[in-house]
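Entry 12.
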Amino acid sequence: MSTYDAFEHSPVPAPGPDAVPPEPFHGIYGMPMFLTVPTRDLAASVDFWANGLGFFDLFTIPGQLTHLRRWPFQDVLLRAAPDETAVAPPALTVSFSAVLSQIDGIAAACERLRPGCTDGPRHTPWNTVDVEVVTPEHARVIMTAAKSYDAGSQEAQNLADVGITGPED
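Predicted 3D structure (tokens):
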């Protein structure tokens, strides 16, 4: 099996303390994956996702749907649910990439908008810093930022133990 540095194909920057997030992308493309979240309060949901999680309104069909985006291929459709429709908490968790310098700000912004909605940031054994956010619609969103690591570190060994090596290996 051959591997290569796939960051050249991704909008996600290579991990590191100086990683810079990509600019918001307003173009239209065939979305390889997106999340649809029903909500009883479309305006409140848009406000939380935009001002807490850092998404922007790509387009809105008033009263029906808002297409949000963060980075390329990080698309969310917030869909208005009729008042009489029970909106159960989503049964799955979705993760979105971020860079290290964004994690604390996302956590703080979400807490200002909805106190108690975050868990973290926390360092993971798989070499990321994550913050878990429960949105007004009860979706569980993980904002995750990869950390760089030094060859020979415990983080490098954890990844090597499962067959993942870095560009310096």
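Annotation: The mean pLDDT is 84. The longest strand covers residues 128-134.
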